[in-house]
Design goal:
Chain A is α/β, with parallel strands linked by helices and about 270 residues long. Chain A is built from nine helices and eight strands. The radius of gyration of chain B is 13 Å and the shape is globular. Classes of the chains: A alpha/beta (about 270), B alpha+beta (about 100). Bound molecules: zinc ion (ZN).
Chain lengths: ~270, ~100
């Protein structure tokens, strides 16, 4: 497929980078990325991936837009309050770039549907907000061999890690188990700064593009951390754990299992 | 001189907002004990009631994960940097504080 004149103009500033070029742009056109959660991380990630011309973007989110989302979840407008996030995201992304096919999935990711949903995509971007989804996404991505861009944000800081299954550390290699249900002091909403989510979500989009195009060095076997109070970034080396329950030498997780939801209603 | 301990954002409320504090000890276990003496309540966020490191929290000594060293018996000395790094769940519609 050749690029249209409109596409050459639209993507011109990234096309002229020799590391991307027409061939890279065509690769993006054929790529499919799944974004878990149209929230604080998923919003900037989805915006930049759609703007860059990723051909297919799936967005899974079971929730509807709330007013208290808008300070960080920049995909959604005041007008969209009350409507499903997956649909609101679709409308914004299609308005930004009509060449992108957006697939809204208004469901909660579960052990029952994860394999079917993830299977259709080349890369998975995890911007979910709870441990049961995060471990499920990690395990599904490892079992299906899908590259996974993990990101988390809370208060003034966050983390990003790119997971290439069985080549580098997975989330479970680094953090073997989620906190036991009930151990978290409170399930009320934690504070978070919108722009900090934007920094980490943008990095997740960038990592996705690097993985899709085979560019540079993704954050593999490293845990990237941003501290918004000092605006310092650093990363620590992480490595595959031979004891890892999903990608170790004797895995105990061979099929997807549902992890106990941590808080009813907010998972 | 002492050992620098880097405190993750969610726990900085227990260290008066400080991202780095100084502690002493010969091992990670001793260091965490000293951290608890200086900032009561912090250790239970890092260790379970048996004193074992929680499985969703990592401790790095000079950028090396102690699970690949000698665990909580890993030796520490003056000038070392120790980082406490929890998993973060937040991102989407509500964020849970993890530790
Ligand atoms: Zn693993």
């Amino acid at each position: 497929m050749t690029l249209s004149k409109e596409q050459i103009l639209r993507y011109g500033r990234q096309l002229i980078l020799p590391e991307i070029g027409v061939a890279g742009q065509q690769q993006l056109t054929h790529a499919a990325v799944l974004i878990i959660g149209a929230g604080g991380l998923g919003s900037p990630a989805a915006f930049y991936l759609a703007a860059a011309g990723v051909g297919t973007i799936g967005i899974i989110d079971p929730e509807s837009v709330a007013l208290s989302n808008l300070h960080r979840q920049i995909l959604h407008t005041t007008e969209a309050v009350g409507s499903p996030k997956a649909r609101s995201a679709q409308a914004r992304l299609e308005a930004l770039n009509p060449h992108v096919t957006v697939i809204p999935i208004q469901e909660r990711l579960s052990a029952a549907n994860a394999a079917d949903i993830l299977d259709a995509y080349d890369v998975v971007v995890d911007g979910s907000d709870n441990f049961s989804t995060r471990y499920l996404v990690n395990d599904a991505a490892v079992l299906l061999g899908k590259p996974l861009i993990h990101g988390g944000v809370v208060h003034f800081g966050g983390q990003v890690m790119t997971i290439l299954p069985r080549q580098g550390a997975c989330f479970r290699c680094v953090f073997p188990e989620p906190p036991p249900a009930g151990s978290i002091p409170s399930c009320q909403e934690a504070g978070v700064v919108g722009a900090v989510a934007g920094i980490l979500g943008s990095l997740m989009a960038h990592e996705t593009l690097k993985v899709l195009l085979g560019l540079g060095e993704p954050v593999v076997d490293r845990l990237f951390m941003f501290d918004g109070m000092t605006s310092r970034v650093r990363d620590v080396p992480v490595r595959r754990n031979t004891q890892c329950a999903v990608c170790g030498e004797q895995p105990t997780i061979r099929t997807l299992m549902e992890l106990e939801p941590l808080c009813a209603g907010t998972a | 001189m002492a050992i620098t301990v880097r405190i993750p954002t969610p726990l900085q409320r227990l260290t008066n907002g400080q991202g780095e504090v100084s502690c002493d000890g010969k091992t990670v276990t001793e260091l965490l004990g000293d951290l608890e003496r200086r900032y009561p309540g912090i250790k239970e966020r890092i260790c379970d009631p048996q004193g074992k490191l929680r499985r969703f929290v990592n401790v790095f000594v000079n950028e090396e994960d102690i699970r690949f060293l000698q665990g909580d018996q890993t030796a520490v000395k003056d000038g070392d940097e120790v980082s406490i790094i929890p998993a973060i769940a937040g991102g989407s519609y509500s964020g849970h504080v993890t530790v």
